[in-house]
Amino acid sequence: MLGKSWFSRSCCIFALMIGCCLTVPVHGQLTARYSDGKVPTMYNYPHRDTIFIFNQQPAPKKGDLSLQYRPASTIMWEKEAPSGEWVHYKTFTNVTQSRIDTLSEGNYRTSISNILLTTPDTEDFTITEPNSSHVVTVADTVSNYEWYRFDYATAKFETTAFATFSGVNSSEMSNLDEGGYMVKVITGDKRDSLVAWICMNPGFELKLQKDNNGAVYFSDKFCDRIDFRIDASHPFVLLTFTHYNPVSGAKSLWENDMTFTANGNYVFIGKHGNQQFFRIYKPPYEDTKYTFSAKDQFGMEQQDEIMYETIIPHSVITLHLPEAKLLADGTNSNPNSAPVDVRFENKSTNATEYVWRFGDGDSLRFGGDFPPHPDTVLHIYTIPKDYSAVLLVTNEYQCKDSSSVKIKVDPSKLDVGNVFSPNGDNINDYFKPDNTSIRQFEISIYTRAGKRVYQYKGGDLRYWNGWDGRINGGKEAAEGVYYYVLRAIGWDNLDYGWKDKKNETYRSYVYLYR
After folding, report:
1. How high is the pLDDT of residue 31?
2. Hey, what's the torsion of the CAs at 367, 368, 371, 374, to 10 degrees?
3. Helix (H) or strand (E) holding 347
4. Residue 339 clears pLDDT 80, i.e. is over it
5. pLDDT score recorded for residue 30
6. 3-class SS at 275?
7. Which among 64, 68, 69, 490 could bridge 35 via Cys, Cβ 3.0 to 4.6 Å?
């Protein structure tokens, strides 16, 4: 990977294999290398045989590039079976050498075939140890070589060779300029012909436009996006290269594909007029450093960093719900029983105005033309249902954000037991119905003779412990059966014998034991 301040260059070579004259098949191979002998990266494509990629700093110049022809061969490996027959083992195609590292004991034979060999070149050998290695290399073949340049003015290869070699086993050309090259290989009556295209990549530099602090200009920051402008003095211009089909003569345009990322995520380059930019939607809530990367298909990469100072408000709610409490009868209270007192804590950032919508029709506003926002907001929910409370925040740039929390208020319930034991053991010491979200409640308790020994009227059962087994709060009532009349209404307006005073469901007996 290159530093962000380097100016990169690379060179690519297209190798397209064709037949000579009309029907002669292709059996040759073109290779490329640096002037110091290193082998460049090679890419294979279905629409052209090979691209040789030169990635080097400083960039390769005239005289650094070479093309070399060698005949491509098929190498077949066979192994002798116990019956004495030769059995196919493995085949390598379009190679000049093959190697196997996991051979078992036995007799082997290799056969090399290519267009320049009249008969296959065979070799027999024996392996005496398991997991042995063996290498087969195609022998050099003496041939004549002719090199031709492509003439872009006529869109054809020149008819006169600029270099010829006779009676050699390979041919190599250096000091090549950008353009198209064809090499013809002649061995007796065998002919082969290949075409390669050399293009110089002028490279690219990634440089973003920044303010004096190395950050995004304020004018490029929006509520829904960020535009990272590319420095106008260093625009991206994709490399294009013109080449021609050596058989049909059709003209083709090749482009150096580029990919762009920001902090590892793919982004696209846009343009407005002459201004190029990267656009990112949904800006972050926090100040963020972005590392942009531009990478071409040869692996050449450039980077630049830029700071984004956020203008986006962030709506954050910390919800404080009631907690279950231990009641006098030894049970725990239901925190979702109406009325539910909810405390909302505002933890938002980068905001100046706040609107609370509690989900029950009520709302509050703070900031701007309204009072400043307190540390917390208290709201009481009474009607049993599920609520969604929303906090909408806005800042001075009119950027908005919202968040929500869920609140549940349980439906009303009344379940009356029929026995209690007020003996001070903290177990079932009080006669109190199991209840949820009850708005109004009253109960009267009588002896079997009809004498009232206890009465309670109230609107919130959370603050009533229940009957403790004493006669109107005085002395202890005797063990036995007592008769009660109960009436209640839930916060959801369910009637528990309040209006229907003849409802026997809430006229019953309770047993007192000590």
Report:
1. 64
2. 10
3. none
4. yes
5. 62
6. strand
7. 64
